[in-house]
Amino acid sequence: MSLLKIENLEVCFPGPDGLLKVVDGVSFEIAEGEVFGIVGESGSGKTLTALSVLKLVPYPGRIASGQISFKGEDILSMSEESLRNIRGSKISMVFQEPAASFDPVFTVGSQLVEAIRIHRPQANARRARDIALEYLEKTHIQDPERVFGEYPHRLSGGMKQRIMIAMALVNSPDLIILDEPTTALDVTIQAQVLDLLCEIREAEKLSMLFISHDFGVIKKMCGRVAVMNKGKIVETGATSRIIDSPKEAYTISLIESVKALS
Amino acid sequence: MNMVKCIDIKKHFPIRRGYLKGAAGFLKALDGVSIEIEKGKTLGLVGESGCGKTTLGKIILGIIKPDSGRVELETNKLQVIFQDPHNSLDPKMRVKDILSEGLILNKESKERIGGKIKDALDLVRLPQNALARYPHQFSGGERQRIAIARAVLTEPELVVCDEPVSSLDITIQLQILELLKDIQKRFSMTYLFISHDLRVVRHMAEDIAVMQHGRIVEKGPTRKVYSEPSHPYTKILLSSVLGIIK
After folding, report:
1. Is there a contact between A261 and B198 if contact means CB atoms under 8 Å apart?
2. For the segment A16-46, what is each residue's pLDDT rounded down to a tens digit?
């Protein structure tokens, strides 16, 4: 059975000439343990597709139709309360901009502890701190004790993104949604963070929905990929097949541009 | 002949800990940088964020002064194209005014300005009706075309391109890079091309300089640096690039 199944998803925003369909009939499935990629240019609808999975489409946008089932449960008909039990626990998310993902007035440690205790109220402060430190170590943060007490602005972008990944992992989720997780990072740091993600995926047997505009990153990370353009999935398939023999006109031109620049 | 020659440029910024306090240390943005760019050629300047590439560009443009070292320029006709076309165009000015501002400062006549602007729009392949519109009415790629038109209008001999395609989608990147190459050939301009993206630099530049922590760690013909990098940092940088062709 697939872990996540999206069928005919439509997301609309009110525009000057009526409703604007920014996600238009998107369907795909992610199997357990799979890393599935969405690649596309800006405005193609990849981020909104990802946000829909957690029912987080920002106002005034809304999910107009479609079905999203996670482990057989229907996400779209769930109450806010049951959704809160899924968000950050069964499904967690890592965003593009590590600097904007943290609250600047709290230490990263207290933010990790908050994420743990929201979903595990029985864990006392000491226990939560131990879990946080354990995950900081798992994401190869050097000197986790010191970093635990630091404020976000005192850490580099690469460090912050490692801590975001730690935060996404602390509640042992089944699925992690990564929305351009390395786009804001330098190439050498990007390589390190991607290696870390590969390692964690092996160790924790995680499934991932990986969003990127960069075919190079997608090729490294994802077994299968969907190419999005103007709200629609143009082509889905094994990443190597899409890169070697794209079928649709849009994919062909995209791959050509990427190849011209590499 | 060299269009630009920078000799042992140093620029250190004081780091202050608290208001009204003296410098607690110095950030060595540039720590003895020497480069030269041959006339009509492109030098690609690559490095990661904070390595000093933009500071070097600004010193060549004369926007900031170096603490020590010399910049020798063969021309005073300089221009710059910035990374973010959303911030580099005044949102309250029509494209017509954006494009004519530099020419008015050069005291050109109204008729000549009108003609030149029309030619510039053709050059960057934007329609003539763009003149009456405002920057927000254009996409990122189109805005970068406007920025390029503005730069070209004053007939510069040296253009500093500071990450000109970094905020654009890849298909648009390719179009803008081709446009920049095309314009360079037509007007025999010299480019300092600053980018963090080694793929883009390889596409554009004959020569390349790799920067790290305010120093040039390696420079040479692009082809040679890419095929036989000698400095360990260049090797790491190149191995981090994720291509799709093996």
Report:
1. no
2. 888 999 999 999 999 999 999 999 998 899 9
Q: Name the minimum distance, in Å, from the CA of B92 to any CA of chain A.
A: 22
In angstroms, what CA-CA distances link B155 with A74, A86, A201, B40?
62, 59, 54, 14
What percentage of chain B reaches a pLDDT higher than 90? 85
Domains of chain B: 2-240 (3.40.50.300)
Domain annotation for chain A: domains and CATH numbers: 2-260 (3.40.50.300)
Query: Which residues of chain B make contact with A251, given a CB cutoff of 8 A?
Result: none
Mean pLDDT within B175-184: 95
Taking the C-alpha atoms of residue A199 and residue A195, their distance in angstroms, rounded to an integer, is 6
> How far away is chain B from the Cα of A257, in angstroms, using its nearest Cα?
6
Rounded CA-CA distance B98/B153 in Å is 11
Size of interface A-B (CB pairs under 8 A): 64
Query: Considering the entire predicted model, what is its pTM?
Result: 0.87
**Chain B residues whose beta carbon lies within 8 Å of the beta carbon of residue A187:** 48, 196-198, 237, 240-241
**Under an 8 A CB cutoff, do A188 and B236 touch?**
yes
Q: Which residues of B touch A254 (CB under 8 A)?
A: 170-171
CB A37 within 8 A of CB A218: yes
Question: Could you give phi then psi for residue B10, rounded to 5 degrees?
Answer: -125, 140
Using one digit for the tens of pLDDT, what is the confidence trace for A51-66? 999 999 999 999 999 9
The string of pLDDT tens digits covering residues B62-87 is 999 999 999 999 999 999 999 888 88
Q: How many helices (H) and strands (E) does chain B have?
A: 8, 9
Minimum Cα–Cα distance from A240: chain B residue: B244
